[in-house]
């Protein structure tokens, strides 16, 4: 077994630790400035990314000192022992009290650096992070109508305060290179251009999860069907097959929840394990959770081969788990509760099934809006007839006092707040849920455009705002309020 021995001098304790080009090339396989490798302390298990700095005299950078400190630190005349394992390099500090110290010192003679082949009994390799790794990793796809509570479910049911969570959003322009990584140019301080693989968020979280086996990691992919997910994952989608049981014979040694099959990707493997030949797997302490809205249009289809690798979970559109303060909040000044409005509208949507494809997916989600969108700002109420129009007219002719200008600002701020509900909810009902049969719910004989709908709703007061709906619809709201 080849090992690298580095004798510590006093200077090394306070400065960066130097290394020779011969060791860099022959032992670490490093030829370019700022290349890196994953290293961990043998006793502590602490892992870090060690960067090789070649701009001047070759030195170790990055997390090398943190790893050594986690091992208990180093003293003058100690020996750093580097061993290349299957997936990373292991560092051990050999102090003068260690029985091997004199043996290694005699091998080195007067040299500070030595790469040598030794018997295994001088070093017992410890590359196995899997024995202490958490085994809760899974792939989950949450789906449901917009606002049904998918993000709430992730936060409250799949994560704890200790969980390390990364979030990203798929979209039509999102690519494999964005997700996994890509080769990009790098310009050094002396103007030299080199090309190196720059890891994407998926590769980065694999690296973090691999090196921290006792920590739970979650990668959340919002709107997973808004991007071409199979193309974005590429060959990596094979990793979504998770190991489900420990075999009595010929088990691979990985814990339950690890990718059942490893893939070959030299760029990813070098970042994650420090070894381009290492098979890439999703570690068992990393879960991937995707979300998608079932009502979204112009999105990509998730094929069967992709979907079967996920645990599918429908998030029910219900107020059972909703905070009462939100469910019972009244919509502006109408005295109609959000829950009552939502339930009645959804009944109409479901009942409209014969005239609308996938009507169930068009329902209003309980979390479709926020509590703040329902709150009424009473500063909009005019102090005299046509106050708002009068102030705007006087503003045009620059005849406003400071007091009147402040009053106009207040009215505008209030109207902006009070428009949030119609701009979100009524627009969705008009443009999406009832796009092809608006007459089912809206009074289209009087209000033939979305502009006229929102204008009336915004300018009306109290329960009269609902006159934009068909009489039977507005009556159902009023009945709930009685």
From TrEMBL:
Residues 139-309 form the ATPase dynein-related AAA domain. SUPFAM superfamilies: P-loop containing nucleoside triphosphate hydrolases. It comes from the Bacteria. Gene3D superfamilies: P-loop containing nucleotide triphosphate hydrolases (3.40.50.300). One of its GO terms (molecular function) is ATP hydrolysis activity. Pfam families: AAA_5. This is AAA domain (Dynein-related subfamily). It comes from Eubacterium oxidoreducens.
